[in-house]
Amino acid sequence: MAEIVILPALLLGLIIGIYEAILLHRDVSVPTHRFGHMAHALVYAIIAVFFTMNAAFIYSTFSFLQGIPLIQYPIVFQIAVGVITMIKVHGASAAIRGSVGGVSVGMKETWAHSAIIAVLVVAAPYVWPFVAPVLPSWLK
Question: How many CB atoms are closer than 10 A to CB 14?
């Protein structure tokens, strides 16, 4: 049975969430909206990375997933989490409103930025073996 991965998922999710929050920090002018978006980005990134890094555990725990033709492989599940992440990131950026010339508009975050966040979430389990040796022992 696959083991659950907690600390690496939290660490990489936090890093990806901070990356997203930093990129969008300048687009949000209202401090309360800024805090809300940063908290939302951090929590969602941690959850998404937790799912992608624990795909093997999820598939061994919920064995019926292997019988579903479309998502029978963990990599497809990870990519699905990435696509959901991309849609969520883009949707959240459109929901935060700003004002340009008296017209209320979203931040207009590009699909490219949303795709970068999604790729980072999907790549997290494959990047971890390269990142782990560089980190101090208390972070592993």
Answer: 14
This prediction's pTM: 0.84
Nearest to 27 by CA among 87, 110, 102, 86: 110
Query: Among the listed ranges 76-80, 92-96, 127-131, which one has the minimum average pLDDT value?
Result: 92-96
**Residue range of the domain that includes 56:** 7-135
Quick check: is 89 in a domain? yes
Q: Which residues pair with 103 in a beta bridge?
A: 100
The tally of domains found in the chain comes to: 1
Radius of gyration of the chain (CA): 17
SS3 1: coil
Quick check: is 2 in a domain? no
d(CA 2, CA 92): 33
